[in-house]
Amino acid sequence: MAERRRETGHTGRASGTRGTQETHEIRAAQETGEAPPDEDEDETARAWRDLVDTARRTVADGLVVGTSGNVSVRVGDTVLVTPSGVPYDRLTPDDVTGVALDGRQVLGTLVPTSELPMHLAVYRTTDARAVVHTHAVHATAVSTLVSELPLIHYMAGALGGPVRVAPYATYGTEELAAHMLTALDGRSGCLLRNHGTLTHGATLDQAYDRTAQLEWMCRLWLTASSVPGLTPSLLSPEQLAQASERLRGYGQHGGARGTGR
Length: 261
Description:
By secondary structure, the chain is an alpha+beta fold. The chain has 7 helices and 8 strands; from the N terminus they run ααββββαβαβαββαα. It starts with 19 loop residues before the first helix and ends in a 13-residue tail after the last helix.
């Protein structure tokens, strides 16, 4: 694992005058909803905390194993990313890792995720504020079978339409990033052949929810397709278009989260 000591301390959180024990107690209270947010915590620190929480959620929900996925969030012109090869449960506020849009590291000393080219490609070409990449089992299985996820459910509309599969390329390469961008055209999520998923959104919650929906649709199609002698019914493009139109108006305006119905 990469050396994790700090020389100058890009801490991602204002140190203040609180003792370590008190700081931990306040953080614990915030996470359980028993205390208001720390007013001394800056935007970067909050974004890093949320990023780490999302990364840990991908493991807890079975979307990745170990450190096989990665998460990023954009704060201004800085992209905070999970570091390469570090278990998410070991990440602390002092481990904040950030790069500029040209890939230069501007925060921290841990090496950024090897999939940085994909994340930066999304931020350079879309208005996304968060990206989630996973190796979800069912989605990865589907990526080996088809070039586009069959229209098994109308929630494909929440991702912009039929979910495409990007051709295979070695992980961490510009070639993979280019294939991904083509598959993402007009979409907020895609599959990566023999690799996994990538989704983006306006928030970490939205990007994560889109990943979860994509994995669920892949599992649904695989399940329906496995029944001997039967072929699952699929939606027509017209039916998907009608559902997509309804999805645009769904939710609590101004405060909607996620992609669920």
